[in-house]
Amino acid sequence: MRNLTCLFGCFLAFALPNVAYSTGPAPDNRYDDGITLTISSKPFDAKTHTIEWCEEGKVCTVDGSFIYGGNGKIPKEQVNSLVFERNGKKLALDVSLMHDSGTNNINIKKHVKVIKWDTDAYWVVGYFSRGDDTYICQWLVSPQGSVRHYIGGYETLVTLTTMVQKDHGLDVTTGTEDSNK
After folding, report:
1. What is the DSSP letter of 178?
2. CB 134: neighbour CB atoms within 10 A?
3. Which residues contact 60 (CB under 8 A, 6 or more apart)?
4. Three-state DSSP state, 112
5. Is 180 within the bounds of a domain?
6. Which helix (H) or strand (E) holds 9?
7. Domain contains 162
8. Structurally, how many domains does the chain consist of?
9. Judging by DSSP bridges, how do beta strands 89-93 and 135-142 pair with one another?
10. Phi first, then psi: what are they for 124, rounded to 5°?
11. What's the rounded Cα separation, in Å, for the pair 22 and 62?
12. 133 in Cβ contact with 100 (< 8 Å)
């Protein structure tokens, strides 16, 4: 009986730390062509930032810049990093101004797509949202580096897309030329 108790105690000593440190579901951040995207965020500490308020009682700027996420309130979190990795080479994507993304390494493939553009170049396109303040980002990534081509509100992009479609006689549902025009 003593051996059984010792065996059970040893089992618990090794098993419990693994249960206690379990991080939940496994990351789902691997894409085609051996690409991995890894995002990390941290809680937003308002005490370490300069916050300017608008007349409407909404956050105008943080540290002198307009931000995305937060919906006019003090953000809950800020994006620390978004790393694009391919063939062992890591590139940090520009995540400045990004807050309250609602994105983590488990749901990243729902929010962010990787689209092959050229032999070794990719578009990384994603939407980020925690609630009703959705913003969109687009990066171009190549072996030489990365550049964020776009960051903006979802509503702005919808408005511009509708304008272009109307001005160019495109069918808003297919993006092709309107046959009725």
Report:
1. P
2. 17
3. 52, 53, 54, 66
4. strand
5. no
6. helix 2-20
7. yes
8. 1
9. unpaired
10. -115, 115
11. 35
12. yes
For residue 136, list its beta bridge partners. 127, 152
Q: Dig out the tokens for 121 from the structure.
A: 């170049």
In whole angstroms, give the CA distance from residue 82 to residue 37. 7
Work out the number of other CB atoms within 10 angstroms of the CB of residue 51: 14
Which two tokens mark 153?
A: 């509100």
The pLDDT score that the predictor gives to residue 4 is 40
Cα separation of 7 and 11, whole Å? Answer: 6
Q: Give me the average pLDDT of each 10-residue run along the chain (181 residues).
A: 42 38 71 95 96 92 93 93 95 96 95 94 94 91 95 86 86 61 51
Instruction: Classify the C-alpha dihedral 136-142-146-150 as positive or negative.
Output: negative
- The residue segments making up the domain with residue 39 are 23-167
Q: Which two tokens stand for residue 173?
A: 């549902």
DSSP class of 25: S
Helices (H) and strands (E) in the chain, counts: 3, 9
Contact 91, 141 (CB under 8 A): yes
State residue 18's pLDDT score: 41
The model's pTM is 0.77
* 118 belongs to a structural domain: yes
